[in-house]
Amino acid sequence: MGYDTKDIRNVVLLGHSGSGKTTFAEAMLFEAKATNRRGTVLDKTTTSDYTNIEQERGNSLFSTLLHAKWKDSKINIMDTPGSDDFVGEVVSSLKVSDIAVMLLNARSGVEVGTELLWEYVEKFKTPTLFVVNHLDNEKADFDTTVEQAQTRFGKKVVPMQYPTNQGIGFQTIVDALRMVMYVFKDDGGKPEKHPIPESEIGKAQEMHNQLVEIAAENDEGLMEKFFEAGSLSEEELTMGLRIAIANQQFFPLFCASSERNMGSGRIMGFINDICPSPAERPEAELTNGDTMKCDTSGPAKLFIYKTISEPQVGMVSYFKVYSGSIKAGDELYNSRTRSSERINQVFTANGKNRTGESVLKAGDLGVTVKLKESQTNDTLGLKGNDLEITPIPFPASRFRTAVNPPSKNDMEKLMKALYQIQSEDPTLIVEQSKSLKQTLLHGQGQLHLDLIKYRIEKVYNIQMEFIRPKIEYRETITKSSNDSYRHKKQSGGSGQFGEVHMRIEPWYEGMPPPEGLNVRSEEIEDLPWGGKLVFDWCIVGGSIDAKYSNAIKKGVMQKMEEGPLTGSYCRDIRVSIYDGKMHPVDSNDMAFMIAAAQVFKNNFNNARPQLMEPIYDLDILCSGDVMGDVMGDLQTRRAIIMGMEAEGHYQKIKTKVPLAELYKYSSTLRSITQGKAKFTRAFAEYSPVPSDVQQKLVSAYQGTLEEA
Ligand SMILES: Nc1nc2c(ncn2[C@@H]2O[C@H](COP(=O)(O)OP(=O)(O)OP(=O)(O)O)[C@@H](O)[C@H]2O)c(=O)[nH]1
Ligand SMILES: [Mg+2]
Q1: pLDDT digits (tens, 9 = 90+) for 648-676
Q2: CA-to-CA distance for 251 and 156, rounded, in angstroms?
Q3: Is residue 27 a contact partner of residue 77, using CB atoms and an 8 Å limit?
Q4: Could you list the residue range(s) of the whole structural domain that residue 171 is in?
Q5: What are the Cα distances from residue 274, in Å, to 6, 14, 99, 268?
Q6: Residue 699 included in any domain
Q7: Atom of ligand 1 nearest to the CA of 26
Q8: Which of 588, 607, 626 is the last residue of a domain?
Q9: Is residue 222 part of a domain?
Q10: For ligand 2, a single-atom ion, which residues have Cβ within 5 Å?
Q11: Mutate which of 87, 104, 259, 451 to test ligand 1's pocket (most atoms within 8 Å of Cβ)?
């Protein structure tokens, strides 16, 4: 029959690695009786981390779909990886979730992963609950954790609960909304409800009053009621908090020890009672700018947020029903591929276990298998209604490596496998670089690429080796040069003759016309690899017929594509053709092309050529205590520090660093900061290579030319 939209809750678990998401998910399933045994990460028995590689590593690497029934609700739970390398899994899960649960480790407070995840929560405007977990740890510090959360995420983070005996003996939580004290048995589970002891009543009442105020503040009617009566009924309180949470005006904070199975039941109760159903969130955005209501009576529409191929099954697609309902046997239309897809079966999932369902209604999350061509980010709907849900904004890559090409036969297999993985994981980008003559993989970090390698080797049975990627240099000039070249060849019958006089100058925006020359026509080329070629035809008196100008430009382009210094692309050059000679019989396109290429090269070498390298903007967020190590390391990477600012107990460093110095940066940063730093990077510009580096690169290239 399927769950009604109003009874569905889509929850994503977020948090720095090790904050306890997978253990918490396990506790939720167990408390909701969706499982009859509580697995542990240590024993490799959790429902969520079911893949071999996750169990080998003891970390989540994929987002896993789970679900549990709590009171009236079907709570869909997505347990995500905390490691920054797999942030793609987080972003896609956030896209389809309506509630985020952010776990904090009571021992370490707000961690760098928490900070970065918060940026995504803000982007998606997801209503969020905080859970302070690990309260049974002997170094647990609830107050500091709350304080850090409020400093970083604002005063809208408001505790609903607090522990009275955190640390090894942790077993009691005072709940300021319900005004009771929960006392757990040693092995957790359902707590006993006790009256709040005298000594705690004052504090609990103060917290309760704050919650009442929050409830009243977010609704005019409630506000009036509050002023008149001085309080709110339980129902009104619930209604007010519901509005406050849905509008991101209130981020309630809860207590838990997921290891000891304490706290998850109350949080599921809260999710059931107060958190929004998919229909209570803003309407879904469509690519045409419209929005769409989450309504089971609307036209059927689903959005694929994740796909993965399983050895025995083939393609497994995870989706959210955005409108209408989805049944086994439905024939839907994919507007990207313009072909129809049959939904043979629909399932709900608890990790690797799938249960067939007859129907899934609007708002629900589900799984189907064996779709033909549909991928992550595709919308499937009724034919004739091809409105698409806006795609998941996957983050830009931060890591690149090259693949050591195996034998030709294996290379074909490898490329096929890589493109397959890329279609499942949009944070992997496979690039066959023509100019570098290398196959490059762009991803989120060393761990991310290691996982790709693992899958290639284990699933596809192909050996893959990573090597250092080459850098895409650019070549340009720094002064002008005039020269001429005559190409003349006499061999038997008709010969070849072309003579070209050429000036080359460094091009810049708004430069004056070439001095002393008369420009008859100008072509401005935006080069596909960036920068410009400006080609001025300045021939007066017909010394070269204008019909040869194309051939001459071609000769120039040939050299621009394979620059004289290192064979890299050239850019930002103005070429002026001001004189030359033709022969009535022997001149032809080929002759002028050769002459132009040669005079360009000679000119180039005389024009103080300069190698340019890609520079990246690198923004690092690190905890204050590792700042010195991060800065010290940056000094060895030719980095230019653009700015630094404190963000709570974190430091944000803005730098510009040459790409050549960023090889394996993510691993180095992780190891020098023990994981207390994260970074993003984006291409910024090309800038001149220092002369000693240039010399080395040029002689290396000249060496390869001689060998050839
Ligand atoms: N003492 C204690 N240990 C916990 C608690 N929650 C989790 N752990 C332990 O901390 C470790 C990490 O827990 P996970 O549940 O794997 O953490 P996670 O957030 O899923 O980590 P990633 O998947 O790497 O992002 C495991 O060994 C858990 O047993 C807790 O509340 N108390
Ligand atoms: Mg996990």
Answers
A1: 778 999 999 999 999 989 889 999 998 88
A2: 6
A3: no
A4: 5-213+248-280
A5: 12, 19, 11, 10
A6: no
A7: 15
A8: 607
A9: no
A10: 21-22, 60
A11: 259
In a domain, 219, yes or no: no
User: Taking the CB of residue 626, how many other CB atoms lie within 10 A of it?
Assistant: 18
Cα 18 to middle of ligand 1, angstroms: 5
Task: Report which protein residue has its CA nearest ligand 1's atom 11.
Answer: 18
Q: In this structure, are 73 and 27 located in the same domain?
A: yes
Whether residue 236 lies inside any domain: the answer is no
- Tokens in use for 216? 């009243």
Q: What is the pLDDT of residues 15-45, one digit of tens each?
A: 999 999 999 999 999 999 999 999 999 999 9
pLDDT in tens, 177-186: 999 999 999 9
pLDDT at 405: 83
At 314, which CATH number? 2.40.30.10
Q: DSSP assignment, residue 81?
A: -
Measure 19 CA to ligand 1 centroid, in angstroms.
Answer: 5
Amino acid at 551: A
60 and 186 fall within a common domain: yes
Average pLDDT over residues 201-207: 97
Q: How far apart are CA 163 and CA 167, in angstroms?
A: 9
Q: Which of 13, 14, 22, 135 to probe ligand 1 with, by most ligand atoms within 8 A of CB?
A: 22
Same domain, 410 and 529: no
If asked whether residues 463 and 481 sit together in one domain, one would say no
Residue ranges around ligand 1 (CB below 6 Å): 15, 17-23, 40-42, 59-60, 81-83, 133-134, 136-137, 257-259
